[in-house]
UniProtKB/TrEMBL annotation:
GO terms for molecular function: DNA binding; DNA-binding transcription factor activity. Keywords: DNA-binding. InterPro entries: DNA-bd_dom_put_sf, MerR-type_HTH_dom, MerR_fam. This is DNA-binding transcriptional MerR regulator.
Amino acid sequence: MTSEEIGYRGPTACAAAGITYRQLDYWARTGLVEPSVRPAYGSGTQRLYSFRDIVVLKIVKRFLDTGVSLQNIRSAVQHLRERGFRDLERMTLMSDGATVYECTSPDEVHALLQGGQGIFGIAVGVVWRDVESALSQLHGERIDTGETLVGHNPADELARRRNRAV
């Protein structure tokens, strides 16, 4: 299955992105990172996040951990939404704490570093692979049928039994 055919529930998204459910809920309610597969429609409904959504969640977490303001993070997330899916994997996001910059080549990274100010970067490809690795151990859900897709966690016998019973 392709990543576009799989959705992930909130707890799985939290585990893969390294955030709390409270953060996930707040970010969804405020529009920072909304689930692109299925939003919540009132009490009792489950949000469903795409792989790309979870990559963006992990990037937001890293920016917050380094002290970037929420306003600048919102601008960066809006920019990421406008980019193509595969473009993210080749991107490096740089920040001086006040502004977030997109770099797609080593020359652009070098030019920013030449400014002489403190700057940090997030290689989106590394985040991408981290999320892939985390999700391979967790459960997904087929978008078309709702079938639970069991990760490669050999200890999760319950999920395997649930799928056999259906």
